[in-house]
Design brief:
The protein is an alpha/beta fold and about 375 residues long. It is about 25% helix and about 30% strand. The protein is globular, with a radius of gyration of 19 Å.
């Protein structure tokens, strides 16, 4: 997959070897805390170009349209070649896993409960997924057993599950991904209108990293990550289902997360796209919407965070949207990309622009 072996990197640095021809595709099992080698390594000034890709809600639950489509056509029949290629080539690929990976458990009382066979995690691996967000309102749909199975499914895979755990320390833990010369931190939290049906982890019980009551702990995690990582990503499950307008608390919280040290805030849960804003020069993508989730036709997108470092050490970050359409268990390219950009542009405040190549900028 896409993870560099930390031991190999450490040995190369200590022995003075030349820069290895290693890419993110050689990364090892995910780790949650940075190793001593990561914290003490000398600055690596080798130029780099990395792409971190994000998408919204994905479901591999029993009877879901993505699963039905996959069973009929396979992965290549569910995604346009360009889109599948983009996911697999991303140096780090992240999605929201909106269901429980379990065959056990008892339904929590709510309107919709989603679970899928843990064996389907190989589909995520085939897609090129590196990080799965578990801080959402469906990962606990089948209670403690379902959540435990979900957590263990990811621990036994090549994919890091972030945002849920057997206790609060585990649920709120930051995931650090080590690229060649660049550490990226991922923090994931959950605040939705269904907060009473979304059990938050405590010191003694399992659950998600719920931020409905307070942003204090997530801001603490962000500040800690800021000290250890080159880039800090915050993925929030928030907002109100079915609306293209962010809730007032999303606007306030997004700014607070940036001020705590986030380089980018990525959101989902409304099941449709919401706008984009900037705070202190850092972007907030309020909702990436449905990606591979249901039968209903909607615009969706792949958000690409492009990290660049030049030979003289100058760092630049670009944000680019890949237009896509999701419907009936398929995700395809769109024939009129300009129409997609106009659609998203109309959701954004006046200070945000999207150019003809999909790059998001602040005026």
């Amino acid at each position: 997959m896409k993870r560099i072996l930390t031991l190999v990197l450490c040995c190369l640095l200590l022995t003075g070897c030349g820069q290895p021809a290693v890419t993110a595709h050689a990364l090892s099992r995910p780790h949650r805390e940075p190793t001593e080698a990561m914290l003490t390594r000398p600055a690596l000034l080798k130029p780099y170009d990395y792409t971190l890709t994000f998408v919204g809600d994905v479901s591999l639950a029993d009877g879901s349209d993505p699963v039905k489509a996959y069973q009929r056509r396979g992965l290549e029949g569910c995604f346009s070649p360009e889109i599948l290629d983009a996911m697999r080539k991303a140096d780090l690929m992240c999605l929201n896993s909106e269901f429980s990976f379990t065959t056990r458990g008892t339904k929590v009382e709510k309107n919709f409960n989603f679970r899928g066979d843990p064996e389907r995690v190989h589909i995520f691996e085939d897609m090129g997924v590196d990080i799965a967000i578990l801080a959402n309102n469906h990962v606990f749909d089948y209670g403690e057993e379902g959540l435990t199975d979900t957590i263990n499914t990811f621990k036994q895979s090549t994919i890091a599950g972030v945002g849920a755990g057997e206790n609060l320390d585990e649920a709120s833990a930051t995931y650090y991904a080590e690229l060649d010369g660049c550490t990226v931190a991922y923090v994931a939290g959950c605040r939705v209108e269904w907060s009473r049906q979304t059990r938050g982890a405590t010191e003694t019980q399992s659950g998600v990293f719920r931020t409905a009551e307070s942003n204090a702990l997530i801001c603490q995690r962000i500040a800690e990550a800021r000290e250890k990582a080159d880039f800090v990503v915050v993925y929030m499950h928030w907002g109100m289902e079915g609306t293209s307008q962010p809730e007032p608390y999303q606007l306030a919280t997004g700014k607070q997360l940036i001020e705590a040290g986030a380089d980018v805030v990525v959101g989902d849960h409304p099941h449709q796209l919401q706008g984009i804003d900037f705070h202190n020069g850092k972007p907030i993508f309020y909702s990436l919407g449905n990606y591979w989730f249901s039968r209903f036709g909607k615009y969706t997108t792949l958000l690409n965070m492009e990290l660049h470092r030049s030979a003289d050490g100058e760092v630049r970050v670009d944000y680019r949207l890949t237009p896509a359409w999701t419907e009936g268990g398929t995700v395809t390219t769109v024939p009129d990309e300009a129409a997609f950009y106009r659609f998203v542009q109309n959701l954004c405040p006046k200070g945000v622009t999207i150019d003809e190549q999909g790059y998001v900028k602040e005026r």
